[in-house]
Fold:
Amino acid sequence: MSVTIKSAREIELMRQAGKILASVHEELGKALHPGMSTLDIDRLGEKLIRSRGCIPSFKNYNGYPASICVSVNDEVVHGIPTKHRIIQEGDIVSLDAGVIWHGYHSDAARTHAVGQVSPEALKLIQVTRESFFEGIKFAKAGNHLNDISSAIQAYAESFGYGVVRDLVGHGIGEHLHEDPEVPNFSQNRKGIRLVPGMTLAIEPMINAGRPDVVWMDDDWTVVTDDGSLSAHYENTILITEGEPEILSL
Ligand code: MF3
Ligand code: CO
Structure:
């Protein structure tokens, strides 16, 4: 598959998808509280997505069994919701969600602090979010993909954090995952040149410790190898002639 340039009509649908997804995330963030299970979060998320006329894009994607990926503390991404996992005060919880609206996808993730969390956890959440914004400073027509990747890496590593290598961002549109891959770390090549009409899901996954991750026995849940905390922040963006447009905010 090659990198697609979206038409005005496609961009408008992705804008609508992004707005809906942003509102789903807002509601989920407000609802998150100690005592609820990760399955409660998934059920609420699926209801919010469907009540807005969208389809949850993760559900049954490559066999993933839920609508919202819920990843707690040392879980990096793709945590599977279950009624047995209860959210506690002091947890950090990454929520990743995708919607399909009239055939077009939007994908976004946020990490939330539940009640009072450690200053170290708060800092990790904040820097992960900031690393996304550092990256998209370079998301401009004429720049290259690696400009984004290296900016994210340089920012996160300046705090001593580990940038996850085994998972990357991606193009998005008619499919959840399209070309190109969007790493959060520098490649030794420039990568593709950015052109208006490209839509990308940029998603730094940052560990408080080492970058290494491992997969759990469920074949989905990715955790930090050293047990350190991990945070995730993702938005679907549009490359324009000027500043990038963040579709899922
Ligand atoms: N944001 C994640 C990604 O881009 C979500 C995929 S989870 C899956 O890969 F369940 F859909 F695979
Ligand atoms: Co994604």
